[in-house]
Please model this.
Amino acid sequence: MWRLNSGWLGVSLCSLLLLVLAAGVFTTITLVDATPAAAQEGGDGGGEDGEPDKNALVWMFEALGLTYSLIFFGLSFTLVSLFVMNLLAVQRDRIVPVGLLEGFEAQLNEKKYQEAYEMAKEDESFLGQVLSAGLAKLSSGYEQAVEAMQEVGEEENMKLEHRLSYIALIGTISPMVGLLGTVQGMISSFSVIANTSTAPEPSKLAAGISTALFTTLVGLFLAIPAIAGYNIIRNRLQRLVLEVGILSESLMSRFASVGKK
Model:
């Protein structure tokens, strides 16, 4: 129970930290954007033409443009979906169900081996697949049963690791997309300077710089929770897989003499 709570606690703390960082960054952006306007004549917070200050989120979406907005939206939606899916996949009841463990051991104690096999085979959990594979090969000997359990365990572990790896992939891709936007934005700003014989307009330079900085910012905001979530879930998965191996070998150890002369 503590392992489950500690995993959720780590995820919750990381999410809370990211929300605080995001709120702080956007609050800072809004204050910096509003300060020059507030210092103008009249002190009414409006622009020179009386227009209201631009909201930070509107500024961000304009700087990102349609292409980067769609890319980051797709990455964020995929990240949340993978995060929830993997969290559900590494629940204890899906990997090491207590009911199966107690029922399987009770059937073995009563020497109802066929019933124990059917119980494990009907259970779709990680432990159920491993135990059913071991009992199915027990007629060939204990060593063969252990090898069968190890093969099934590695296969099931690979499936979970494969699904989890997509979170790490997003954590790697997001800052790269941000870096691409950074390069594109800086090229746009330098292009304005290169194609202007006089002093360039600050607003035109700011457009490219805004694209460069906002793409980097959003890319990092996606990468940080992705990497943190990947490592938290992966550590929990490794603990549960190790527990499956220990429990399965412990339950099957009573058949160690099978197949030996």
User: Anything to note?
Assistant: The CA atoms of residues 39 and 45 lie 8 Å apart. Helices lie at 2-38, 56-89, 92-95, 98-109, 113-122, 126-136, 142-194, 202-252. The radius of gyration is 28 Å.
